[in-house]
Specification:
4 helices, 4-stranded mixed beta sheet, signal, 16% strand, mainly beta, 6-stranded mixed beta sheet, 15 strands, 354 residues
Protein backbone atom coordinates (compact mmCIF):
# COMPACT_ATOMS: atom_id res chain seq x y z
CA UNK A 1 0.00 0.00 0.00
CA UNK A 2 1.55 3.11 1.20
CA UNK A 3 4.45 3.41 3.53
CA UNK A 4 8.09 2.61 3.98
CA UNK A 5 8.88 2.39 7.64
CA UNK A 6 11.42 1.00 10.02
CA UNK A 7 9.43 -0.91 12.65
CA UNK A 8 9.43 0.96 15.94
CA UNK A 9 10.63 -1.99 17.95
CA UNK A 10 14.11 -2.39 16.45
CA UNK A 11 15.22 -5.74 17.65
CA UNK A 12 17.94 -4.75 19.92
CA UNK A 13 14.80 -5.21 22.03
CA UNK A 14 14.79 -8.95 21.40
CA UNK A 15 17.82 -9.13 23.64
CA UNK A 16 15.70 -7.85 26.50
CA UNK A 17 13.79 -10.33 28.57
CA UNK A 18 10.89 -8.25 29.84
CA UNK A 19 11.24 -4.53 29.62
CA UNK A 20 8.82 -3.14 32.16
CA UNK A 21 6.37 -0.52 30.98
CA UNK A 22 2.71 0.16 30.54
CA UNK A 23 0.54 2.05 28.13
CA UNK A 24 -1.55 4.76 29.64
CA UNK A 25 -3.31 8.01 29.14
CA UNK A 26 -6.05 9.04 26.78
CA UNK A 27 -5.80 8.38 23.07
CA UNK A 28 -4.27 11.28 21.17
CA UNK A 29 -6.19 13.09 18.48
CA UNK A 30 -5.73 11.10 15.27
CA UNK A 31 -3.04 12.55 13.03
CA UNK A 32 -3.61 12.77 9.27
CA UNK A 33 -3.67 9.31 7.72
CA UNK A 34 -0.91 7.99 5.53
CA UNK A 35 -0.83 8.80 1.83
CA UNK A 36 -3.45 7.05 -0.33
CA UNK A 37 -2.75 3.67 -1.91
CA UNK A 38 -0.56 3.63 -4.98
CA UNK A 39 -1.96 2.78 -8.38
CA UNK A 40 -1.78 -0.95 -8.74
CA UNK A 41 -0.68 -2.47 -12.05
CA UNK A 42 -2.00 -5.99 -12.13
CA UNK A 43 -0.41 -9.23 -13.19
CA UNK A 44 -3.72 -10.38 -14.66
CA UNK A 45 -5.56 -9.43 -17.81
CA UNK A 46 -8.94 -7.69 -17.94
CA UNK A 47 -8.25 -4.93 -15.42
CA UNK A 48 -8.50 -1.17 -15.66
CA UNK A 49 -5.67 1.37 -15.59
CA UNK A 50 -5.36 1.07 -11.82
CA UNK A 51 -5.18 -2.70 -11.94
CA UNK A 52 -8.68 -3.17 -10.56
CA UNK A 53 -10.59 -6.23 -11.68
CA UNK A 54 -14.22 -7.21 -11.12
CA UNK A 55 -15.95 -5.90 -8.02
CA UNK A 56 -15.46 -9.29 -6.38
CA UNK A 57 -13.43 -12.35 -7.35
CA UNK A 58 -15.09 -15.66 -8.01
CA UNK A 59 -15.60 -17.20 -4.57
CA UNK A 60 -14.15 -20.56 -3.73
CA UNK A 61 -15.80 -23.28 -1.69
CA UNK A 62 -16.21 -22.58 2.00
CA UNK A 63 -15.00 -25.20 4.43
CA UNK A 64 -16.43 -25.91 7.86
CA UNK A 65 -14.63 -24.42 10.84
CA UNK A 66 -13.13 -27.37 12.70
CA UNK A 67 -12.81 -25.60 16.01
CA UNK A 68 -11.34 -22.61 14.15
CA UNK A 69 -7.81 -22.49 15.49
CA UNK A 70 -6.99 -19.74 13.03
CA UNK A 71 -5.60 -22.05 10.37
CA UNK A 72 -6.54 -21.45 6.74
CA UNK A 73 -7.68 -24.39 4.56
CA UNK A 74 -5.04 -27.07 4.01
CA UNK A 75 -4.87 -26.20 0.30
CA UNK A 76 -4.36 -22.46 0.90
CA UNK A 77 -1.25 -20.83 -0.54
CA UNK A 78 -0.10 -19.70 2.91
CA UNK A 79 0.10 -23.38 3.89
CA UNK A 80 1.78 -24.61 0.72
CA UNK A 81 5.00 -26.59 1.12
CA UNK A 82 7.56 -24.78 -1.04
CA UNK A 83 10.59 -26.98 -0.40
CA UNK A 84 10.55 -28.42 -3.93
CA UNK A 85 9.65 -25.29 -5.88
CA UNK A 86 12.28 -24.04 -8.35
CA UNK A 87 14.45 -21.06 -7.50
CA UNK A 88 13.36 -17.87 -9.25
CA UNK A 89 15.80 -16.87 -12.03
CA UNK A 90 16.31 -13.43 -10.45
CA UNK A 91 16.58 -14.74 -6.90
CA UNK A 92 20.13 -13.59 -6.22
CA UNK A 93 19.44 -10.08 -7.50
CA UNK A 94 16.25 -9.74 -5.48
CA UNK A 95 17.90 -10.97 -2.29
CA UNK A 96 20.73 -8.49 -2.89
CA UNK A 97 18.22 -5.65 -3.28
CA UNK A 98 16.65 -6.53 0.08
CA UNK A 99 20.07 -6.92 1.71
CA UNK A 100 22.09 -10.11 1.40
CA UNK A 101 24.20 -9.20 4.42
CA UNK A 102 21.37 -7.82 6.55
CA UNK A 103 20.34 -9.87 9.58
CA UNK A 104 16.86 -11.22 10.17
CA UNK A 105 14.82 -9.56 12.93
CA UNK A 106 11.93 -11.25 14.73
CA UNK A 107 9.60 -8.27 15.24
CA UNK A 108 7.73 -9.87 18.15
CA UNK A 109 8.44 -11.08 21.65
CA UNK A 110 7.49 -10.80 25.31
CA UNK A 111 7.50 -7.74 27.52
CA UNK A 112 7.13 -4.23 26.17
CA UNK A 113 9.08 -1.71 24.18
CA UNK A 114 8.41 1.98 24.74
CA UNK A 115 5.34 0.95 26.73
CA UNK A 116 3.81 -1.28 24.04
CA UNK A 117 3.77 -5.06 23.52
CA UNK A 118 6.33 -6.31 21.02
CA UNK A 119 4.60 -7.39 17.84
CA UNK A 120 1.22 -7.10 16.13
CA UNK A 121 -1.43 -7.97 18.72
CA UNK A 122 -4.56 -10.00 18.05
CA UNK A 123 -7.75 -9.30 19.99
CA UNK A 124 -9.88 -12.44 20.30
CA UNK A 125 -13.56 -11.52 20.34
CA UNK A 126 -16.48 -13.76 21.34
CA UNK A 127 -19.30 -14.79 19.05
CA UNK A 128 -21.94 -12.11 19.23
CA UNK A 129 -19.42 -9.32 19.82
CA UNK A 130 -21.19 -6.04 19.11
CA UNK A 131 -20.35 -4.70 15.66
CA UNK A 132 -19.51 -1.04 15.26
CA UNK A 133 -19.15 1.34 12.34
CA UNK A 134 -15.72 1.97 10.81
CA UNK A 135 -15.08 4.97 8.56
CA UNK A 136 -12.34 4.45 5.97
CA UNK A 137 -10.04 6.88 4.24
CA UNK A 138 -9.74 4.40 1.34
CA UNK A 139 -13.31 3.16 1.38
CA UNK A 140 -13.35 2.01 -2.25
CA UNK A 141 -10.83 -0.75 -1.43
CA UNK A 142 -12.06 -1.58 2.07
CA UNK A 143 -14.67 -4.10 3.19
CA UNK A 144 -17.69 -2.29 4.54
CA UNK A 145 -18.55 -2.66 8.20
CA UNK A 146 -19.75 -2.97 10.74
CA UNK A 147 -16.81 -4.75 12.38
CA UNK A 148 -16.87 -6.62 15.72
CA UNK A 149 -14.01 -4.59 17.16
CA UNK A 150 -14.39 -3.46 20.79
CA UNK A 151 -13.35 -0.02 21.96
CA UNK A 152 -10.47 -1.53 23.96
CA UNK A 153 -9.07 -3.63 21.10
CA UNK A 154 -5.29 -3.87 21.11
CA UNK A 155 -3.49 -1.48 18.77
CA UNK A 156 -0.09 -2.22 17.29
CA UNK A 157 2.41 0.01 19.07
CA UNK A 158 -0.06 0.90 21.83
CA UNK A 159 -2.90 3.45 22.11
CA UNK A 160 -0.60 6.40 21.46
CA UNK A 161 1.40 4.88 18.61
CA UNK A 162 2.07 6.87 15.46
CA UNK A 163 3.11 3.94 13.26
CA UNK A 164 0.95 1.53 11.26
CA UNK A 165 -1.49 1.04 14.14
CA UNK A 166 -2.84 -2.28 12.91
CA UNK A 167 -5.83 -3.69 14.75
CA UNK A 168 -6.80 -7.35 14.31
CA UNK A 169 -9.95 -8.92 15.75
CA UNK A 170 -10.25 -12.72 15.60
CA UNK A 171 -13.79 -14.10 15.89
CA UNK A 172 -13.34 -17.83 16.52
CA UNK A 173 -17.06 -18.51 16.36
CA UNK A 174 -17.43 -17.07 12.87
CA UNK A 175 -13.88 -18.13 11.94
CA UNK A 176 -13.12 -14.69 10.56
CA UNK A 177 -10.50 -12.02 11.13
CA UNK A 178 -11.18 -8.30 10.85
CA UNK A 179 -8.11 -6.20 10.13
CA UNK A 180 -7.59 -2.42 10.15
CA UNK A 181 -4.69 -0.19 9.15
CA UNK A 182 -4.08 3.18 10.82
CA UNK A 183 -6.92 2.56 13.26
CA UNK A 184 -8.15 5.09 15.83
CA UNK A 185 -11.17 4.95 18.14
CA UNK A 186 -13.85 7.33 16.95
CA UNK A 187 -17.04 7.89 18.88
CA UNK A 188 -18.54 4.46 19.45
CA UNK A 189 -16.62 2.95 16.54
CA UNK A 190 -13.33 3.31 14.67
CA UNK A 191 -11.64 5.39 12.02
CA UNK A 192 -9.08 3.66 9.79
CA UNK A 193 -7.07 4.03 6.64
CA UNK A 194 -8.29 0.73 5.21
CA UNK A 195 -9.79 -2.53 6.37
CA UNK A 196 -10.47 -6.08 5.27
CA UNK A 197 -12.41 -9.13 6.44
CA UNK A 198 -11.01 -12.62 5.85
CA UNK A 199 -12.98 -15.86 6.14
CA UNK A 200 -10.47 -18.39 7.45
CA UNK A 201 -12.52 -21.25 6.00
CA UNK A 202 -12.16 -20.06 2.42
CA UNK A 203 -9.47 -19.42 -0.20
CA UNK A 204 -10.97 -16.23 -1.58
CA UNK A 205 -8.54 -13.45 -2.49
CA UNK A 206 -9.33 -9.76 -2.59
CA UNK A 207 -10.22 -8.16 -5.93
CA UNK A 208 -7.29 -7.42 -8.21
CA UNK A 209 -5.81 -4.02 -7.37
CA UNK A 210 -7.31 -3.88 -3.88
CA UNK A 211 -5.31 -3.31 -0.74
CA UNK A 212 -6.25 -4.67 2.70
CA UNK A 213 -4.87 -3.64 6.09
CA UNK A 214 -1.54 -4.65 4.53
CA UNK A 215 0.13 -3.21 1.43
CA UNK A 216 -0.05 -6.54 -0.40
CA UNK A 217 -3.80 -6.98 -0.04
CA UNK A 218 -3.19 -10.11 2.03
CA UNK A 219 -4.26 -10.99 5.56
CA UNK A 220 -1.80 -9.95 8.27
CA UNK A 221 -3.14 -12.55 10.70
CA UNK A 222 -2.44 -15.36 8.22
CA UNK A 223 1.30 -14.68 8.32
CA UNK A 224 1.82 -13.95 12.01
CA UNK A 225 3.97 -16.19 14.17
CA UNK A 226 1.78 -16.99 17.19
CA UNK A 227 3.04 -18.51 20.41
CA UNK A 228 0.36 -21.20 20.52
CA UNK A 229 1.72 -22.59 17.24
CA UNK A 230 5.25 -22.81 18.58
CA UNK A 231 3.99 -24.31 21.83
CA UNK A 232 2.28 -27.01 19.75
CA UNK A 233 5.62 -27.79 18.10
CA UNK A 234 5.22 -26.42 14.58
CA UNK A 235 4.13 -23.53 12.40
CA UNK A 236 2.26 -24.75 9.33
CA UNK A 237 2.17 -21.60 7.21
CA UNK A 238 4.39 -18.99 5.58
CA UNK A 239 5.43 -15.97 7.63
CA UNK A 240 4.83 -12.28 6.91
CA UNK A 241 7.98 -10.30 6.12
CA UNK A 242 8.83 -6.70 5.22
CA UNK A 243 11.41 -5.36 2.76
CA UNK A 244 12.64 -1.80 2.14
CA UNK A 245 11.48 -1.48 -1.46
CA UNK A 246 9.43 -3.35 -4.04
CA UNK A 247 8.79 -2.92 -7.73
CA UNK A 248 5.48 -2.09 -9.36
CA UNK A 249 2.90 -4.82 -9.79
CA UNK A 250 2.38 -7.79 -7.51
CA UNK A 251 2.99 -11.50 -7.39
CA UNK A 252 0.18 -13.97 -6.64
CA UNK A 253 -1.35 -14.26 -4.07
CA UNK A 254 -0.92 -10.51 -3.46
CA UNK A 255 -3.55 -8.26 -5.03
CA UNK A 256 -2.05 -4.80 -4.62
CA UNK A 257 1.05 -2.81 -5.55
CA UNK A 258 2.58 0.03 -3.55
CA UNK A 259 5.46 1.05 -5.76
CA UNK A 260 6.17 2.77 -9.05
CA UNK A 261 9.73 1.38 -9.28
CA UNK A 262 10.42 -0.71 -12.37
CA UNK A 263 13.79 -2.27 -11.46
CA UNK A 264 13.37 -5.98 -12.22
CA UNK A 265 15.84 -6.81 -9.46
CA UNK A 266 13.40 -5.63 -6.79
CA UNK A 267 10.90 -8.11 -5.35
CA UNK A 268 7.18 -7.55 -5.69
CA UNK A 269 4.62 -7.67 -2.93
CA UNK A 270 3.54 -11.29 -2.68
CA UNK A 271 7.01 -12.62 -3.55
CA UNK A 272 7.81 -15.90 -1.77
CA UNK A 273 11.22 -16.71 -0.33
CA UNK A 274 12.43 -19.71 1.64
CA UNK A 275 15.27 -20.39 4.01
CA UNK A 276 17.79 -22.52 2.12
CA UNK A 277 17.80 -26.21 3.01
CA UNK A 278 21.57 -26.03 3.50
CA UNK A 279 21.20 -23.68 6.47
CA UNK A 280 21.61 -25.56 9.74
CA UNK A 281 19.05 -24.80 12.43
CA UNK A 282 19.77 -27.72 14.77
CA UNK A 283 21.69 -25.65 17.33
CA UNK A 284 19.01 -22.99 17.66
CA UNK A 285 16.88 -22.80 20.81
CA UNK A 286 13.52 -24.51 20.37
CA UNK A 287 11.41 -21.40 19.79
CA UNK A 288 13.77 -20.04 17.15
CA UNK A 289 14.26 -23.46 15.55
CA UNK A 290 10.52 -23.96 15.01
CA UNK A 291 10.28 -20.56 13.31
CA UNK A 292 13.32 -21.32 11.14
CA UNK A 293 11.97 -24.74 10.15
CA UNK A 294 8.72 -23.10 9.04
CA UNK A 295 10.71 -20.70 6.86
CA UNK A 296 12.38 -23.69 5.20
CA UNK A 297 9.15 -25.55 4.50
CA UNK A 298 6.61 -22.75 3.96
CA UNK A 299 8.83 -19.74 3.41
CA UNK A 300 8.10 -16.06 3.94
CA UNK A 301 5.84 -13.77 1.92
CA UNK A 302 6.71 -10.13 1.17
CA UNK A 303 3.69 -8.30 2.58
CA UNK A 304 4.69 -4.68 3.19
CA UNK A 305 7.48 -2.12 3.13
CA UNK A 306 9.69 -1.76 6.17
CA UNK A 307 13.09 -2.76 7.48
CA UNK A 308 14.73 -5.71 5.71
CA UNK A 309 14.01 -9.24 6.89
CA UNK A 310 11.66 -8.23 9.70
CA UNK A 311 9.29 -11.14 10.32
CA UNK A 312 5.99 -10.53 12.06
CA UNK A 313 4.46 -12.18 15.08
CA UNK A 314 1.98 -11.61 17.88
CA UNK A 315 3.19 -10.56 21.32
CA UNK A 316 2.96 -13.09 24.12
CA UNK A 317 4.35 -13.26 27.65
CA UNK A 318 5.62 -16.80 26.95
CA UNK A 319 8.10 -15.78 24.26
CA UNK A 320 11.74 -16.23 25.26
CA UNK A 321 13.37 -13.14 23.79
CA UNK A 322 16.86 -14.59 24.21
CA UNK A 323 15.82 -17.68 22.25
CA UNK A 324 14.22 -15.62 19.49
CA UNK A 325 17.41 -13.61 19.24
CA UNK A 326 19.03 -16.67 17.63
CA UNK A 327 17.07 -15.87 14.47
CA UNK A 328 19.31 -12.84 14.04
CA UNK A 329 22.10 -15.23 13.07
CA UNK A 330 20.30 -15.63 9.74
CA UNK A 331 21.03 -13.15 6.96
CA UNK A 332 19.55 -12.42 3.57
CA UNK A 333 22.13 -14.65 1.92
CA UNK A 334 20.47 -17.61 3.67
CA UNK A 335 17.28 -17.10 1.63
CA UNK A 336 16.24 -17.68 -1.96
CA UNK A 337 13.24 -16.49 -3.97
CA UNK A 338 11.07 -19.30 -5.30
CA UNK A 339 8.86 -19.46 -8.37
CA UNK A 340 5.30 -20.15 -7.19
CA UNK A 341 3.61 -20.12 -10.61
CA UNK A 342 3.12 -23.90 -10.60
CA UNK A 343 0.88 -23.59 -7.52
CA UNK A 344 -1.70 -21.28 -9.11
CA UNK A 345 -5.16 -22.65 -9.81
CA UNK A 346 -6.80 -19.25 -10.30
CA UNK A 347 -5.68 -15.64 -9.91
CA UNK A 348 -8.78 -15.01 -7.81
CA UNK A 349 -8.17 -17.88 -5.41
CA UNK A 350 -5.58 -18.74 -2.81
CA UNK A 351 -6.09 -22.47 -3.42
CA UNK A 352 -2.98 -24.25 -4.67
CA UNK A 353 -2.57 -26.92 -7.29
CA UNK A 354 -1.94 -30.35 -5.82
Amino acid sequence: MRRVRAPLRVLALIGFVAVLGACGGADPAPPPLASPPSASPSVTAGTDALGRGPARPTPTATRPAAGCTGALPADNVWRADVTRLPVHPRSAAMVASIGAGAAMHPDFGSGTWEGAPIGIPVTVVPGGQKKVDVSFEYASESDRGPYPIPADAKVEGGPQADGDRHVIAFDKTACKVYELFSAYPQGGGWRAGSGAVFDLRANKLRPSGWTSADASGLSIFAGLVRYEEVAAGRIDHAIRITVPKTRTGFTWPATHSASSATDANLPQLGQRLRLKSSVSTSSMPKQARIVAEAMKRYGVIVADHGSPWFISGAPDSHWDNDALRALKSLTGADFEVVDTSALITSRTSGAVRR
